[in-house]
């Protein structure tokens, strides 16, 4: 999971269970978020998977390790 900015818009990049794939969710369209007890499986995140052709993908916070 991560965030990508484009212009003045921010996108949450995360796995979509409904579509069974990596998706970009526009931040201003997210109206509700509920934490779940289950943990998401780790998946590699590459700029190419998101269609980012210019710019860089930067990890700003490491993922938490399961305890």
Overview of this protein structure:
With 67 residues, this protein is an all-beta fold. The chain has one domain. Helix content is 0%, strand content 28%. The protein has no helices and 3 strands. The protein has a 3-stranded antiparallel beta sheet with strand order 1-2-3, with no helix packed on it. β2 and β3 form a beta hairpin. The protein is globular.
Tell me the domain tally. 1
Mean pLDDT: 79
The proportion of residues forming helix, as a percent range, comes to: under 10%
Assess the beta-strand content as a share of residues.
25-35%
The neighbouring-strand order within the major sheet is: 1-2-3
Give the uncertain stretches in residue-range form. Answer: none
Largest sheet: 3 strands, antiparallel
Structural class: mainly beta
The N- and C-terminal alpha carbons lie at a distance of: 19 Å
Radius of gyration: 13 Å
Question: Given the structure, what is the number of helices?
Answer: 0
Shape estimate: globular
Number of strands: 3
**H/E topology pattern:** EEE
Task: Please outline what is shown here.
It is built from no helices and 3 strands.
What are the key terms here?
67 residues, globular, 0% helix, 3-stranded antiparallel beta sheet, WYL domain-containing protein
List strands and helices in order, with pairings.
Layout: E1 2-6, E2 9-16, E3 21-26
Antiparallel strand pairs: 1-2, 2-3
């Amino acid at each position: 999971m991560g965030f990508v900015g484009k212009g003045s818009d921010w996108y949450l990049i995360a796995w979509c269970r409904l579509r069974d794939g990596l998706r970009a969710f526009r931040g201003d369209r997210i109206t509700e978020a509920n934490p779940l007890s289950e943990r998401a499986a780790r998946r590699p995140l590459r700029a190419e998977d998101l269609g980012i052709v210019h710019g860089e993908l930067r990890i700003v916070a490491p993922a938490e390790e399961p305890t």
